[in-house]
Amino acid sequence: MVLLGAAGFSTKAILIKLAYAADGQLDAITLMALRMLFSATVIFTCRVVESEKSSEPALDKKQWVIVIILGLMGYYIASYLDFLGLQTISAGLERLIIFSYPTFVVLFSALFYRRPLTASVLIALGLSYIGILLVFIESLSLASTNILLGSAFV
């Protein structure tokens, strides 16, 4: 399941770009609805199979409210902005930006938990952002319109 999830997450941007190219009338909300419909089916199936094996109690009402709010804030808004960004930037640049999220974990750990940034971590972060910058510069040279806005959305 982890490998399937990683493969699906990695190919998402390519599939979205192909969908935008196939039908110019598609928008981010339509594609998100299709993605969520597919995901909900998979998640529901996994939940049913897993619930037969597990004796753990279901979530109470308060926990469901929290999960729904976090899902709307975290998943819906992030996905919507990502899909909007994919309208104007390449799938490669989107993947690089998305996969730079460990940077935030490192920086927040240093800031909130007072974990020191070692030389090897700083070198890794620097190399990551140099790679993003190189792809970003290449995208600029390909005359992409609204690349700054698309990158900000992602």
Largest sheet: none
Structural class: mainly alpha
Helix content: over 70%
Number of strands: 0
Mean pLDDT: 84
Query: Could you tell me the strand content as a percent range?
Result: under 5%
Ranges where pLDDT stays below 50 over 5 or more residues in a row are: none
SSE order, one letter for each helix or strand: HHHHHHH
Radius of gyration: 19 Å
State the separation between the terminal residues, measured CA to CA.
25 Å
Question: Total number of helical segments?
Answer: 7
General shape:
globular
Q: How would you describe the overall organization of this protein?
A:
With 154 residues, this protein is an all-alpha fold. The chain is built from 7 helices and no strands.
List keywords for this structure.
mainly alpha, 7 helices, globular, 154 residues, 79% helix
What's the short story on this structure?
By secondary structure, the chain is an all-alpha fold. The chain has seven helices and no strands.
Helices and strands in order:
Layout: H1 2-22, H2 28-53, H3 61-85, H4 91-98, H5 101-112, H6 119-141, H7 147-153
